[in-house]
Specification:
Helices cover 0% and strands 57% of the residues. With 196 residues, the protein is mainly beta. The radius of gyration is 15 Å and the shape is globular.
């Protein structure tokens, strides 16, 4: 797919094979994804050198279900609000049966990196279930910026995690949280390993 379309509102996407891309789907606030994105058990390999903030496989979603897929990410950025799957989530968003294998390289000015999602709108509802994240963060300088998290970097919105694990490797980010910065998140069967 390409990032040149104006909007992906109310569409369903089903993946029939493993794919590789360096493009961002729905790459600005006016180009949101709304609908179902079903990976069909396939893997999307996302390799991207960011020239913008809010870089991820899907830049912006506004009411979406994303499920049944693996995402292998390799992202290099000097910008903030970067994640493997979603940069900005609005509305009600469900993520189910997604496995992330990702490495993100930033700098000391790179803030709010998430292994799964970077930002969640204050009025959004985010439900993450049956999902695993293996994230390695590195920096070209001595440290990363603030707000790095293994799963969701945002501190806002209504967030729940059910049957979720994260392996969070961030040796240059001592201020990072293994799961999320959201202090009101709800957890059920959530496991993490953190190495910072």
């Amino acid at each position: 797919y390409t990032n040149d379309y104006a909007s992906f509102g109310d569409v369903n996407i089903y993946i029939g094979a493993d794919i590789k891309t360096d493009k961002i789907l729905a790459n600005s606030t006016g180009r949101y994804f709304k609908g179902i994105f079903d990976g069909g058990g396939h893997t999307i390999t996302f390799t991207h050198t960011a020239e913008e903030s809010f870089a991820s496989l899907i830049g912006y979603v506004n009411g979406a279900t994303i499920r049944n897929m693996g995402v292998k990410g390799e992202i290099v950025t000097t910008y903030s609000n970067t994640a493997t799957l979603i940069s900005m989530a609005k509305g009600t968003v469900t993520i189910d049966k997604v496995i992330i294998e990702s490495s993100i390289q930033g700098t000391s000015s790179t803030s709010y990196i998430g292994g799964l999602v970077s930002s969640v709108d204050s009025n959004a509802v985010m439900n993450v279930s049956n999902t695993g994240v293996n994230l390695t963060l590195t920096s070209t300088s001595t440290s990363l910026g603030s707000g790095a998290c293994g799963i969701i970097a945002s501190s806002s919105g209504t967030i729940s995690f059910t049957n979720v694990y994260v392996n969070y490797q961030a040796p240059n980010s001592s201020n990072g949280n293994a799961i999320t910065r959201n202090n009101n998140a709800v957890y059920k069967n959530v496991y993490y390993y953190k190495n910072v």
